[in-house]
Specification:
The complex is a heterodimer of chains A (about 425) and B (about 290). Chain A is an alpha/beta fold. Chain A has 16 helices and 14 strands. A 7-stranded mixed β-sheet of chain A has the order 7-6-8-9-10-13-14. A 5-stranded parallel β-sheet of chain A has the order 2-1-3-4-5. In chain A, strand 11, helix 15 and strand 12 form a beta-alpha-beta unit. In chain A, helix 13 packs across helix 14. Chain B has a two-stranded antiparallel ribbon with strand order 1-2. In chain B, a hairpin with a 2-residue loop joins strand 1 and strand 2. The model of chain B has no long low-confidence stretch (mean pLDDT about 90). Classes of the chains: A alpha/beta (about 425), B mainly alpha (about 290). At the A-B interface, strand 7, helix 8, helix 9 and helix 10 of A face helix 1, helix 8, helix 9 and helix 10 of B.
Chain lengths: ~425, ~290
């Protein structure tokens, strides 16, 4: 019986097929390579801030089909994976190291909240992976990290907006005595100093500054102390514990709430549901005021985002809840911008495409405005330069990769949708920034 | 001064919640020799059982009974089908701790897709507000204190004056001798898991009521507080756990009034460490109800 010897051609084809079947990532620096690309979602998925991670994961689940359904990035599909930091810097470091060490195909990282950004951002930067972080910490206002990007203003602006809502918000006289009730985590405490400065310099008084331990089983004594200070309004961000604290306020105050103003992180379906269940929908609608970036929740970019987010319910059933969550919109935009930067540079090497992200976001002279990945790729293939205006609106990165935009004053409707109730005028915003220092 | 009086009142609520949990935990350990680290997860599971009962429009007090029943049955089954087989194979103490830790993680992760990660609240659990001499409590908080007092008295009566209680004490002191004396130790241990499981379930519901808003992640916190009170009082000593609950419950609230509230648990657990340094065996070791019968 004779043995059939394969020809060199057949061997070569076989070898290629075997290599292709392995699905390995082969970025060349001069091309987009092959195999799936990964977006790492590094954020708290457990612990007191467990409500944050899912909002960012939803952003990735919405962005991936926008890219994959339109040819991928040079044929490469985008996938999403969660990396849980538990909201603790000590847990975040091994999570970041594992993410980087285990995945050579990381195209971008999203998440990195104030809980862990200070520890993970330098690690991700050293690995030369573009990141879009949801931290408002002032240490990133002039960061030297080249791969760091921030699509939300620094916390100081969130704090100024909360003070603005207290002093200039519609439907009430200016509040003069505020209680600051912020969680004892790094992110929440970042609001305290700027809020205190802005509020006191504009004539207000801080009745009490009360850091509360997130995750405590009760806040009875804390609330008694706060009520004793007789504030007109509570400025707060205490994610995970808001329901427990505010219910206690209502209980000890004889069933009556005190107006409370939340940071932009309180525009969140988990927060809404928790507080609604604790104090009741009527009190939530009547006494809550929030601040948020000025979103339109309309336009072609938002429509595609919304359609993809709803479709993502098959993978993650809570995804559609994040349809008006600012961070979800922004991170969606961040992933799309990164993908467009890769296409524009024809490179899967982040050292090449990282700097292009700013060009895509800010636009260059004569750039064509695009709102979707599909349109962006088409424009790039036509040889045009582009500016991506996404679901979260325009971006304006400074030289430290920080993008700033204005605030609106918001509330909720009974279904948990964000409702705009007012705006801060440029004059009011200037006063707040000047007072806050 | 008013704030300290109010904090004292809140401390009464806090210590009541802790006492129910800690007494169940310490009895479980004292009689079965099992450090059950899944205790907190059974508590939070029971809290969710009560939540679904309450959500169906049934009063939370019925939900509390449902939670207690669930805790009893779940704990009993946990011992019968998980812990007991390992113990029969001669698994070491530290091995059993690891087993219970694994069970704890399994319960938490199995529960997560069912109940979700977000917080929930019972409906209409506040009750009217009562003020007396600076103390401000709701009627339901007073009811929680009442439930705790009644339960502590029942535990005292059980251990001191019933045949089952005496059998429990004998089993705790020397199971082999107890068995040789004709005490059906297996039935006693089954009863212990049912009773302490019921306390565990009830404690979970009470703790969730007290928190106003709770989530699956609260299970670990429940365990730590119960464990701290039990260790402070002397491991395996129900009366010690009661004293431990009083100390931790009161100090937590009073330190929140006196000092920075974000450090209230630091103060409470700092005192726990101090007591452990001075008296490693706990406050009531060898003197409680489950000590060797003298």
């Amino acid at each position: 019986m004779s043995r059939v010897k394969p020809s060199p051609f057949v061997s070569a084809v076989g070898a290629i097929l075997v290599l292709a079947a392995c699905g390995g990532s082969t970025p060349t620096g001069g091309g987009l390579g092959t195999g799936d690309l990964l977006v790492g979602v590094i954020a708290p998925f457990t612990g007191a801030d467990a409500g944050l991670g899912p909002a960012y994961y939803a952003a990735c689940l919405a962005a991936a089909p926008s890219i994959n359904a339109n040819g991928g990035i040079g044929g490469r599909n985008v996938k999403c994976e969660q990396f849980d930091t538990r909201g603790e810097p000590a847990d975040a470091v091994p999570a970041a190291n594992k993410m980087i060490a285990s995945n050579s195909n990381l195209m971008a990282v999203v998440g990195c909240t104030s809980d862990e950004a200070a520890t993970v951002a330098p690690i991700i930067d050293r690995a030369h992976i573009p990141m879009f972080c949801m931290t408002g910490q002032s240490e990133f206002n002039k960061t030297p990290l080249k791969y760091f990007h921030r699509l939300v203003p620094a916390d100081v602006y969130d704090a100024f907006a909360m003070v603005g809502s207290a002093l200039f918000g519609p439907g009430h006289d200016p509040y003069k005595k505020a209680a600051l009730v912020f969680g004892d985590d790094i992110g929440s405490q970042a609001f305290v100093a700027p809020a205190t400065n802005a509020f006191t310099h504009l004539g207000g008084t801080i009745a009490i500054n009360q850091p509360i331990h997130l995750g405590a089983s009760s806040y009875r004594t804390e609330v008694a102390a706060m009520l004793k200070a007789k504030p007109d309004v509570i400025l707060t961000e205490a994610l995970g514990s808001a329901g427990t604290y505010l219910k206690e306020v209502k209980t000890q105050n004889g069933g009556k709430m005190i107006p409370f103003i939340g940071s932009s992180a309180t525009i969140d379906p988990t927060w809404f549901q928790q507080v609604r269940d604790a104090i009741g929908i009527d009190d939530l609608l009547k006494y809550y005021g929030g601040v948020d970036l000025g979103y339109t929740f309309s336009g072609p970019a938002y429509s595609e985002f919304l359609a993809n987010l709803n479709a993502a319910a098959s993978t993650f059933k809570d995804a559609p809840k994040y349809k008006q969550r600012g961070s979800t919109l922004h991170l969606y935009d961040g992933i799309i911008m990164t993908a467009l930067a890769m296409v524009a540079t024809n490179s899967a090497d982040a050292k090449v495409y990282n700097s292009k992200i700013l060009d895509i976001a800010n636009g260059t002279s004569g750039a064509t405005v695009v709102n979707t990945y599909k349109d962006g790729v088409a424009a790039l293939k036509a040889g045009k330069s582009i500016r991506f205006v996404g679901a979260g609106g325009e971006n304006n990165f400074d030289k430290y990769n920080n993008s700033q935009s204005g605030y609106i004053l918001v509330g909720y409707d009974k279904d948990g949708n964000e409702v705009t109730v007012g705006h801060l005028t440029p004059d009011q915003t200037s006063k707040l920034i000047a007072a806050g220092g | 001064m008013d704030l300290y009086v109010a904090a004292f009142g809140f401390g009464l609520v806090g210590m009541s919640v802790i006492a129910i949990a800690a007494v169940g935990f310490t009895m479980q350990f004292g009689i079965t020799n099992m450090i059950n680290l899944a205790y907190g997860e059974v508590m939070i599971s029971s809290a969710y059982v009560a939540y679904y009962v309450n959500k169906a429009g049934i009063t939370i007090w019925v939900g509390m009974i449902a939670g207690a029943l669930f805790g009893a049955v779940f704990s009993f089954l946990l011992n019968r089908f998980v812990y007991a087989p390992f113990q029969r194979k001669g698994t070491s103490h530290i091995g059993m701790v690891i087993v219970s830790l694994a069970v704890s993680l399994m319960i938490a992760n199995l529960l997560l897709p069912i109940v979700g990660y977000y917080s929930v609240s019972y409906q209409d659990t506040t009750g009217g507000l009562l003020r007396a001499g600076g103390i401000v409590l709701t009627t339901n908080q007073i009811a929680i204190i009442g439930v705790a007092v009644v339960l502590m008295l029942l535990i005292h009566g059980l251990l001191r004056y019933t045949r089952l209680g005496k059998a429990m004490r004998a089993t705790a002191a020397n199971p082999t001798l107890a068995r040789n004396c004709g005490i059906p130790t297996q039935r006693v241990i089954d009863s212990v898991w049912l009773i302490t499981g019921a306390l565990c379930g009830l404690a979970g519901v009470v703790a969730a009521m007290d928190s106003d808003s709770f989530a699956i992640s609260n299970g670990a916190g429940f365990l730590i507080t119960a464990l701290a009170a039990a260790v402070l009082g002397g491991a395996g000593q129900p009366y010690g756990a009661m004293i431990g609950a009083v100390i931790i419950g009161m100090i937590t609230e009073l330190s929140a009034a006196a000092w920075a509230p974000e450090y209230k648990e630091v103060v409470a657990f700092g005192i726990l460490v101090l007591v452990m340094v001075l008296r490693p065996q706990g406050l009531l070791s060898k003197r409680g109800a489950l000590a060797a019968a003298g």
